[in-house]
Hints:
By secondary structure, the chain is an all-alpha fold. It has one domain (18-79). The chain contains 3 helices and no strands. The protein has helices at 5-11, 17-38, 42-52. The two termini are 33 Å apart. The mean pLDDT is 81.
Amino acid sequence: MFDTTLDLFCYNEELNDRQHMVDTMRDTYWDAMNKGVNDERHADAISVFEEWVVDGVDPEDGEYEFTFINDLTRLIEDN
C-alpha cells in the first residue's frame, strides 16, 4: 500500500507518471509560446522556447534524460 499519491507514482512500476509529467510540461510550454506569438509578445515566446530546448534541440528528439528530484514537501525545517 502507498502512503501518498506521490509514492503511488514513484514506486509503482505499472504507472509511467514521469512521461505524463514531461508531456504536460511540453504542452504547457507549447501553449505559452503560442500565446506569446498570438499576443505579439515575441520576446516572451522566444524566452519560453529557450526554456524548453537544449542546445537548439527539442529534448524529446534528442538523447536527453529528464531528472526529477525527490519530494521535498515532507522535509521539516528545524527552527
